[in-house]
Amino acid sequence: MSTLLKKEIKVNRIVTTNIAQAKALDDPARIKILQILYHNEFSAEQITDELHKSGYQKAVTTIRHHLDVLKNAGLIEVVKMEEARGAVMKFYGTSVKLLGYGIPPNFDSVYSKTIMDASIKIEKIIKNIMQNNVSKIKKKNSENKNDSQYDQYVLMEIVNRAMTNVFENNNPSFLIIPQKKAKSVSKND
Prior knowledge:
Number of domains: 2
Distance between the termini: 67 Å
Largest sheet: 3 strands, antiparallel
Structural class: mainly alpha
């Protein structure tokens, strides 16, 4: 037998999630609900209206089911309750920002130097975080039957949440890449 293809697979990103979250994100309508709730608080009826605007024709009962799935996965929560016409109306919000873009095929080659430079800096930060939190992380790991990858999971969550703080709490203008101005051409040129 001859080998027709052999490709070395190198891990280049880590996704931290759990089974409930993965299952919850396995539906385009639920992903859209997360995007709708980002920096908003809406009732099931308002979410249904927003989904209709985006082309999702779902009944309110179906949306309530999706909300329950997302809530049970810890991706959304009830942020407000109001009494309306003798009933309690729940409003939902999320502390999750879902970025769902496709990475261009040449991403690694275009950004390889930046990735390496950032890796060196982030390694120092992660080592510092680990040194300052080793006892807390090890204690939690012992509760998780000393899973060898749990330490990485906790560190990824710390770094992810720290990066989220940077992106969410700072003036986002430093994240905007300036556009190059087009040269104006005069009639005399």
